[in-house]
């Protein structure tokens, strides 16, 4: 593994930045493993939301526990707004998988939802990206952490800011709340409901 650095309490990370993830349990945001989900082609599923919900149901059986989840956010496809609109969201997970094993697991879940790897940015049934793995940063044998484009995408940082506004980006030192303000890609992204799981 190449220079994977675990930098605690640098870059202005607050050691006590935590979110509630269950009864008597809090998560130190410094350790957050964050996965982004996206869908703009429902395939055989009734809706994009159904794809994303079904994929989350799959996480646990793959050794990935969802600790916190955002709402689903809708946005025009970037860079080509002629493509079908996206539904996106993020989850904070707990897993024993190391970053590479987690990537392989996410790839298996994508495959189970019939994602075809064709051209870059082509419509996809399910796209799962590893946004961050704790404070790891750098190039881990070809896996770049945190995800190099996540910070500039409102359809990623908006959902992160929803569940963990105080999360600090391991490289640029900005909070999710700040990044959601400054992200330049997908500025039209909005949650489809006020709260995850709430009726329309
Ligand atoms: N709105 C939106 N546009 C995209 C998205 C996405 O998740 N949402 N993902 C892409 C490939 O990573 C390309 N474009």
From TrEMBL:
Domain 7,8-dihydro-6-hydroxymethylpterin-pyrophosphokinase: 120-131
Keywords noted in UniProt: Transferase
Protein's UniProt keywords contain Heme: no
UniProt-listed PROSITE patterns: HPPK
Name assigned to this protein: 2-amino-4-hydroxy-6-hydroxymethyldihydropteridine pyrophosphokinase
NCBIfam families: folK
Family note: Belongs to the HPPK family.
Gene Ontology molecular functions: 2-amino-4-hydroxy-6-hydroxymethyldihydropteridine diphosphokinase activity
Function: Catalyzes the transfer of pyrophosphate from adenosine triphosphate (ATP) to 6-hydroxymethyl-7,8-dihydropterin, an enzymatic step in folate biosynthesis pathway.
InterPro entries in the cross-refs: Hppk
Annotated source species: Brevundimonas nasdae
């Amino acid at each position: 593994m190449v220079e994977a650095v675990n930098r605690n309490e640098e870059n202005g990370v607050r050691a006590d930045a935590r979110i509630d993830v269950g009864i008597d349990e809090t998560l130190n945001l410094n350790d957050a493993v964050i996965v982004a989900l996206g869908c703009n082609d429902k395939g055989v599923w009734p809706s994009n939301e159904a794809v994303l919900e079904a994929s989350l149901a799959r996480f646990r059986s793959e050794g990935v526990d969802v600790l916190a989840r955002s709402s689903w956010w809708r946005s025009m496809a970037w860079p080509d707004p002629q493509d079908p609109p996206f539904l996106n969201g993020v989850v904070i997970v707990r897993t024993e998988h190391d970053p590479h094993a987690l990537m392989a697991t996410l790839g298996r879940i994508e495959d189970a939802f019939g994602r075809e790897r064709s051209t870059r940015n082509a419509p996809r049934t399910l796209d799962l990206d590893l946004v961050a793995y704790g404070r790891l940063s750098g190039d881990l044998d070809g896996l770049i952490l945190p995800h190099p484009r996540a910070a500039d995408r409102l359809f990623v940082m908006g959902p992160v800011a929803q569940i963990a506004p105080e999360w600090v980006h391991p490289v640029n030192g900005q909070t999710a709340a700040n990044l959601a303000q400054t992200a330049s890609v997908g500025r039209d992204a909005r949650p489809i409901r006020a709260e995850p799981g709430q009726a329309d």
